[in-house]
From TrEMBL:
Compartment(s): Cytoplasm
Higher taxonomy: Bacteria, Pseudomonadati, Pseudomonadota, Gammaproteobacteria, Oceanospirillales
Name of the gene this protein is made from: fruI
Family to which the UniProt record says this protein belongs: Belongs to the PEP-utilizing enzyme family.
Taxonomic superkingdom: Bacteria
Name the UniProt record assigns to this protein: phosphoenolpyruvate--protein phosphotransferase
Length: 319
């Protein structure tokens, strides 16, 4: 099966009844973009830009950032790049952007909240990304957005930048979206969907905040499962809100490459799965073996279970 998956890795992922799902890769190092393409990735669904910044001794200026982003875009050769703006704080400290000591860093100054305390950093990043793209498909997404007010604050900076650079975000080459990784943003997905270009569900943080389990907790890791029906319910709400507004939804957390989760996410209506580059051939093969009816059936089966454990055992016999 693995050999067959590898041979067909450049073919698009189409379900047996003709629904097309984009399979793209997560990236933390722009030098690895070429490798992702060679494994069949149809683009990058999550560039964790904070990792690029962590590899620097000081805040890279617009020009230095542009060079990094250009490296990824060149390797992608016209395929889309979804770049996440800096997601610092929580589990990802940045030495030259110290955050005051907090009792609960995961509930503190992180992601978009932190970014909005230094709008110039966000402005520079928008600017560098758009300049590097030079009209190639670029989707910028904001991490840890909890409601539409945070999106609007970032959108205002984005709008100033695109006006300065005389480009337009017409929904084709350039899009601005948000990650759905805080339960509040899933619950309020309709209000967000009216204003964003797309959603990408970060199941790692969404699971952490929904179940109140630290994503890295050694003793609780078995319980920290994105297939929990509560998390699936939030994903379902997100997809329904997005599609009602004609927007697309990706999933870029670990759940996207979980064998049992792939049919469920497909059945919930997700349009794009972003996985580690190594998993691209497997995920594409898995999608090709499904029909939408079958996937919807598995999604409903999962949603009807009371616990993550029950979801996994109900899905076991479905493979
Ligand atoms: C997530 O939270 O699911 C996600 C994709 O982002 P990160 O793992 O970088 O927090
Ligand atoms: Mg996250």
């Amino acid at each position: 099966e693995a050999a067959l998956a590898w041979e067909s890795r450049f073919e698009p992922a189409m379900t047996a009844d003709g629904t097309r799902i984009e399979v793209v890769a997560n990236l933390g190092n722009t030098a690895h973009a070429r490798d992702a393409v060679s494994r069949g990735a149809e683009g990058i669904g999550l560039l964790r830009t904070e990792f690029l910044f962590m590899a620097q001794a000081e805040m890279p200026d617009v020009e230095a950032q542009q060079a990094l982003y250009r490296e990824a875009l060149d390797a992608l050769d016209g395929r889309p790049l979804v770049a996440r703006t800096l997601d610092v704080g929580g589990d990802k400290p940045l030495s030259y952007w110290p955050v005051p000591r907090e009792d609960n860093p995961f509930l503190g100054l992180r992601g978009i909240r932190l970014a909005l305390t230094r709008p110039q950093v966000l402005r520079d990043q928008f600017c560098a990304l758009i300049k590097a793209a030079e009209g190639r498909p670029l989707r910028i997404m904001l991490p840890m957005v909890k409601d539409v007010a945070e999106f609007r604050a970032a959108r205002q900076i984005f709008d100033e930048v695109i006006e300065e650079l005389a480009v337009t975000a017409d929904g084709e080459a350039l899009q601005l979206g948000v990650m759905i990784e805080i339960p509040s943003s899933a619950l309020l997905a309709s209000t967000l969907a009216a204003e964003v270009d797309f959603f990408s569900v970060g199941t790692n943080d969404l699971t952490q905040y929904t179940l109140a389990i630290d994503r890295g907790h050694p003793q609780l890791s078995a319980q920290s499962d994105g297939l929990h029906p509560a998390v699936l319910k939030l994903i379902e709400m997100t997809v329904q809100a997005a599609h009602a507004h004609g927007k697309w939804v990706g999933v870029c957390g670990e759940l996207a490459s979980d064998r049992q989760a792939v049919p469920v996410l497909l059945g919930l209506g997700v349009d794009e799965l972003s996985v580690s580059a190594r998993q691209v051939p497997m995920v594409k093969t898995r999608l090709r073996g499904l029909t939408m009816d079958e996937a919807r059936r598995q999604a409903q089966l999962a949603l009807a279970q009371p616990t993550a454990e029950a979801v996994r055992s109900a899905l076991e016999d479905q493979a």
